[in-house]
Amino acid sequence: xxxxxxxxxxxxxxxxxxxxxxxxxxxxxxxxxxxxxxxxxxxxxxxxxxxxxxxxxxxxxxxxxxxxxxxxxxxxxxxxxxxxxxxxxxxxxxxxxxxxxxxxxxxxxxxxxxxxxxxxxxxxxxxxxxxxxxxxxxxxxxxxxxxxxxxxxxxxxxxxxxxxxxxxxxxxxxxxxxxxxxxxxxxxxxxxxxxxxxxxxxxxxxxxxxxxxxxxxxxxxxxxxxxx
Length: 228
What we know:
By secondary structure, the protein is an alpha/beta fold. The chain has 2 domains: about 120 residues, Response regulator (Rossmann fold), CATH 3.40.50; about 90 residues, Winged helix-like DNA-binding domain superfamily/Winged helix DNA-binding domain (Arc Repressor Mutant, subunit A). Helix content is about 40%, strand content about 20%. The chain is built from 8 helices and 12 strands. Strands 2-1-3-4-5 form a 5-stranded parallel β-sheet, sandwiched between helices. The chain has a 4-stranded antiparallel β-sheet with strand order 6-7-8-9, with helices on one face. It is elongated and about 60 Å long.
């Protein structure tokens, strides 16, 4: 039994009970509220390990709740899983760009919900980046402590997102990562990354890294890897 705390926000009482029951059965501590205002108030006194958030809420809607939480240093670290009947791509992309970690559309399978919750919590516990772990590949150097990339001694100007993607992949040369995994690794505080935008970041990285850009390989149908 995990004991991790989860806040569920939904204005449909039957959905709240269904989610609460299934989470509690897995050993999670569950608190539920029915509005965005209640959710924002709740996290000030009871900080959850994860929030399951409906987008269509009365008053302050789910996207506004997500935005406020991700813009607050006290709550930016809390993972958010969107639970919504709004399955349109634009709504999902907007939620992810605001900082949500995953989404599930209604109607949903409780088993899928539990699997997604476990996956997000597992990623949250993953080993943090060691800022003393300097990576050197030939004349390419990646220095996480300085947030610096050098090629033949020359500083390469990368955006924060590009740096996080490069460092994430270079730490595990030869490993293949899906776009979803890269999104999860690259998303930091107030950083908007989507699976679609990963391709643009990869193109930019290849161009900026010059001859070392060839180390970023496309694995068709899966994602990308940093060549060994």
